[in-house]
Amino acid sequence: MKNIIIITLMMVLLTNHVEAQFAPPAGMPGSTAIHRDSNVFVNWAEKVEIQRGYVNISDKSLGYVDYGETDYAFGKADGKVISLGDSGIAIISLTASLINGDSWDFAVFENGFSDEFLELAFVEVSSDGENYFRFPCVSLTDTIDQIETFGTLDTRKLHNFAGKYRVNYGIPFDLDSLDDNELLDKNNISFIKIIDVIGSLNPQYATYDSKGNKINDPFPTPFNSGGFDLDAIGIIHQKNIDKNNSAELNDLVIYPNPVHNDLHLTTAATTIERIEILDINGYNKTLFYDNEKSVFDVSLLSSGIYFIKIKFKDNKTVVRKFIKE
Fold it and tell me: Residue 227 belongs to a domain with what CATH number?
């Protein structure tokens, strides 16, 4: 009997380890959360259309949520939000299109008050405002018991959902993770759509991840502030700011990646004005580049995810991601 108990416990531990395979909460090693103050952001969304969802989609007599104003989703993340409600939608129209740069291209901010109480949403993008493409997302949260109104989630079991991180920390999205499609121009993304996830396990209302798994998150949230709460959209790669497709920038390479000590930069460009190393919490270290210096000592940086931001004299900017081991 003792051996059976030990084997059972080992199987449970192994299962939990396998399931908890995605990035952990903000501030933990390996997290992809980007702080609102990070200099990696070149702009913030300023135009949003809201289609309010239900207070409780299983009791439509309660009507629609009404918390927050549309302009609460404008500008830099500040914790002021507009609530979408069950099945609610936000469509962000970009004044300058997103482009597909190296690493993440934009980030979505919610106002979760902890690392465990999370309200999720799907994220889609479009070039023409008609054809939208959803970022592949995965939920490994168990679907045996419904997570109740004030229940909790494990961030490490969630991938590519808006709302994965607490307030002031954005979840980043990379256009490279979308399949190529003739109806999607990844260098001319003009619209971002946020769609509230209905976390009900009831098949009548359930929503599903990219693998066909039911998504289990707090349900119901029968308040006028229920559902996903949109705080802001931070732009990382934007047309006319990050012209990453120009010939001058295409030959820019950083290596090794991951890096232990020396980060090398090679490029034919001769107009680099400055280089900044940024971590996802906003750390900023400015390095002045000249043609004789192409190796940077990063040995004193803590392990984690960083950005190298390169500004050219004509105001072009390119951002690359690297990992410090």
Answer: 2.60.120.260
